Amino acid sequence: IINNYKHRSPAVRGKLKEMLNTGNLAGTGKLVILPVDQGFEHGPARSFAPNPKGYDPLFHVELAIESGCNAYAAPLGFIESAAAEYGGQIPLILKVNNNDSLYSSPNPLSAITSGIEDALDLGCHAIGFTIYPGTSEKNTAFEQLKYMIRSAHENGLAAVVWSYPRGETIASEDETGLDIVAYAAHQIKIIK
After folding, report:
1. What backbone phi and psi angles, to 5 degrees, belong to 162?
2. What distance in Å separates the CA atoms of residue 59 and residue 52, rounded to the nearest whole number?
3. Per-residue model confidence (pLDDT) at position 143
4. Helix/strand/coil for 93
């Protein structure tokens, strides 16, 4: 896996190696990240009421460690809660943009909610970014993503992108079509 990132700095490759060599899948070339941003996106009650332990931000990082995940990804507040106590036990990924369901749009554009400085201050291995190719806001999102990736790499951080092909131009039944998913993944690889 790391051989595919020869063009990245030793610092970025080092962060990737640490993620790939953590947890139950260490050394296999496989990566499992526990992303916990659904409280921001869908609201805390919808996300955590079925399991009230989920209201505690530390529950999720502990779950990631106990489950043998390679890394834990979350928005700023959850990472701030976890960094001091758990940062050395599992690589942390700061989710730098987030969407919410208080305002529903067929063309989502996630808000930038934290930055590279936050990730560095908290000892994160990477930043995480969600993008929705297929929305009318995609060009703005691509520009934000390019800036965030460049800034992360310049500061020795890896970047993880969640690319969800959604928007008014993609029918919901087509969002999981192999050609659509491959297109969305291809776009991100070209940007990275």
Report:
1. -100, 115
2. 10
3. 96
4. strand
- For residue 144, give every residue at least 6 positions away whose Cβ sits within 8 Å of its Cβ, in sequence order, or none: 97, 112, 129
Tokens read off for 91: 């690589």
Determine the Cα angle at 44 with ends 40 and 47, to 5°: 95
Of the candidates 63, 66, 57, which has an alpha carbon nearest to the alpha carbon of residue 84? 57
Q: Residue 47 and residue 60: Cα distance in Å, rounded? A: 12
This prediction has a pTM of 0.93
Q: What is the pLDDT of residue 39?
A: 66
With tokens 């990275």, the residue in question is 192
Residue pLDDT, tens place only, 60-91? 999 999 999 999 999 999 999 999 999 999 99
Measured between alpha carbons, how far is 76 from 131 in angstroms, rounded to an integer? 18
Q: Which residues of the chain have pLDDT under 70?
A: 39, 42-43
Question: What domains appear along the chain, each with residue ranges and CATH number?
Answer: 2-191 (3.20.20.70)
Contact call for residues 109 and 163 (beta carbons, < 8 A)? no
Q: Report the Cα 138 to chain-centroid distance in Å.
A: 17
3-state secondary structure of 53: helix
